[in-house]
């Protein structure tokens, strides 16, 4: 015996290698986007992205596990004066009063779809910041989700766009 101990025993090393190979093969990585569950609503993949012009967008997934249709009827954020709900029609953003989330349904808020625009930022946002988004549902009420600020390409890669 040389007096040196291996960093990992052979069985542990094999298990570690198997886990790393499985993760790499499946492209497996956890979402960095914010998530919360409240009253049958599951909000996930919540991210915020900013532009050089100081604008910010929020993207996320809304899932309604209840038997009652819900609508997102408003939103606010701790870093801005207003949050507008928009629908993309042919590359043009149009404000909407609500975003329907059907009973048992799922809605993706993403580029080229419905999304949230954070207007009148009170301070510049930087990658790594976190924004508290308060989403107002009817019926229901407010639900807060914490969304990390990411670069645009990273934010889009967090979304389950298929």
What does it look like?
The chain has 162 residues and is mainly β. It has one domain (34-158): PCu(A)C copper chaperone (Immunoglobulin-like, Sandwich). 15% of the residues lie in helices and 48% in strands. It is built from two helices and eleven strands, in the order αβββββββββββα. The protein has helices spanning 10-26, 152-158; strands at 34-38, 41-50, 56-64, 70-77, 80-89, 92-95, 99-101, 106-109, 115-121, 130-138, 142-150. The model is unreliable at 5-29 (pLDDT under 50).
State the name of the first-level CATH class. Mainly Beta
Assign an overall shape.
globular
Instruction: Name the CATH superfamily assignment.
Output: PCu(A)C copper chaperone
Number of strands: 11
* C-alpha-based Rg, rounded: 20 Å
For the residues shown, what is the average pLDDT? Answer: 84
Order of helices and strands: HEEEEEEEEEEEH
Unreliable spans are 5-29
| Quaternary status | single chain
What is the fold-level CATH name, i.e. the topology?
Answer: Immunoglobulin-like
CATH architecture: Sandwich
Task: State the end-to-end distance.
Answer: 55 Å
How many strands, which pairing sense, and closed or not: the largest β-sheet?
11 strands, mixed
Question: Helix segment count?
Answer: 2
Helix proportion:
10-25%
- Number of domain units: 1
